[in-house]
Design goal:
A hairpin with a 7-residue loop joins β1 and β2. The protein has 19 helices and nine strands. It has a single domain, classed as Cytochrome P450 (Cytochrome p450).
């Protein structure tokens, strides 16, 4: 696979076209295109699942950066990410995940449905007020605010601070792209990491003096270093809403561009709609793993220190797994996807993300039966790692 094709304007606009070509080449291909460090792209559904469960392949952790970017500790953003459970493996990862995972059990998530519904109604009230003056920017006014407000309640982040968070979260997300480590992006991400670290350090200190029924208070009582605690709070908060934000934006676009599917959406079948949205346009299209020792993927060699592109978006459109994979079909009998990952790093917030989508979409169309795109969706290139709309203008009253 030519990595330059994936990173090109055409590749960023229409990655499924590249995915289709990849599937004709098997389950995995060697990577070329002049980019050092990436050995193999794995894109078949079963092959991707196997890599995600294979302990030979690790997150891009501190050991990986020591090999590839020796000066990485000078960057607060990289340091913060590598202190978190999202970029560690083994006992360290498992211990922190167990601490945080208690907040995301199926029982606790199910118990949140009424709260999510109430929050959705309040945000729809706000959309109605804003819509009196014309089109509304859906991503900032709803798709971001719903999941970030839910996460804020869980962690104990004041709701009034959410507007402050969004640009800083976007700055951190930019460096996660395959070609996102530019000087400009790193400067912005480092500034955001410093500010977020200072914010959560102060909030942790307050919770230690005055504990509450929230995740920050719970974790502040655990045996974690202050640096590790803050890093995990930042990344848990960010990860807890970024993918759902894109699920809401991508999913709404799919429905508004397919009136016949929108007409068939009900509260009774919304779960299958949301699952198909997640398969069809996963908010995270690509994961990256590295091999600390020589390994192989589908018979293709991966030398020690090299990385593997794990093509989640392509796996979700594998014709060997899904009939007519490029068709959006919420009634498909072969449902299921790898959008939330697999193995030790399976997304903690998967159930919560699904719940938020299942509550939000019927409520949106019940409140605004004439909801429509206010302008044509931009055909500009999009990110590949965190794929979604920056902005999305909608008309609520037709």
């Amino acid at each position: 696979m030519d990595l330059n094709a994936l990173l090109s304007e055409e590749g960023r606009i229409d990655p499924p076209a590249l995915y289709a070509r990849l599937h004709r080449a098997g389950d995995a291909v060697a990577v070329d295109g002049g980019v050092q460090g990436y050995a193999v792209a794995v894109h078949g559904f079963d092959a991707v699942a196997q890599v995600l469960k294979d302990s030979r392949f690790r997150q891009l952790d501190a050991a990986y950066l020591d090999l590839t970017t020796p000066q990485w500790r000078r960057h607060p953003a990289l340091w913060m990410l590598r202190e978190s459970m999202f970029f560690t493996d083994g006992p360290v990862h498992d211990r922190v995940r167990q601490m945080i995972g208690g907040a995301f059990t199926a029982r606790r998530v199910n118990a949140m449905e009424d709260a999510v519904a109430a929050l959705t109604d309040r945000l729809l009230d706000r959309l109605a007020e804003l819509a009196a003056d014309g089109p509304v920017e859906f991503m900032g006014e709803f798709a971001y605010l719903l999941p970030s407000s839910v996460m804020a309640q869980m962690l104990g982040v004041p709701q009034e601070d959410l507007a402050w968070f969004r640009p800083r979260v976007l700055a951190i997300g930019a460096i996660l792209e395959l070609d996102g480590g530019t000087w400009r992006n790193m400067v912005r991400a480092d500034t955001a990491a410093r500010e977020l670290s200072a914010y959560f350090t102060e909030l942790v200190a307050k919770r230690r003096q005055d504990p509450r029924d929230d995740l920050i208070s719970l974790l502040a009582a655990e045996d974690l270093s202050d640096e590790g605690l803050v890093a995990n709070l930042i990344t848990t908060f960010n990860a807890g809403f970024v993918t759902t934000t894109h699920l809401l934006g991508n999913g709404l676009t799919m429905l508004l561009e397919r009136p016949e599917l929108r007409a068939g959406l009900t509260a009774g079948n919304v779960a299958s709609y949301v699952d198909e949205m997640i398969r069809f346009e996963p908010p995270v299209q690509i994961l990256v793993r590295w091999a600390p020792q020589d390994a192989d993927v589908q018979g293709l060699p991966v030398m020690a220190g090299e990385a593997v592109l794990v093509m989640i978006g392509a796996a979700n459109r594998d014709p060997a797994r899904f009939a007519d994979p490029d068709r959006f079909d919420p009634t498909r009998p072969d449902a299921g996807s790898l959008s939330f990952g697999l193995g030790p790093h399976y997304c903690l917030g998967a159930a919560l993300s699904r719940l938020e989508g299942q509550v939000a979409f019927p409520a949106l169309f019940e409140r605004f039966p004439k909801l429509a795109l206010a302008e044509q969706v931009s055909g500009a290139p999009k990110p590949l790692i965190l794929r979604g709309h920056d902005t999305l203008a909608v008309s609520c009253h037709g």
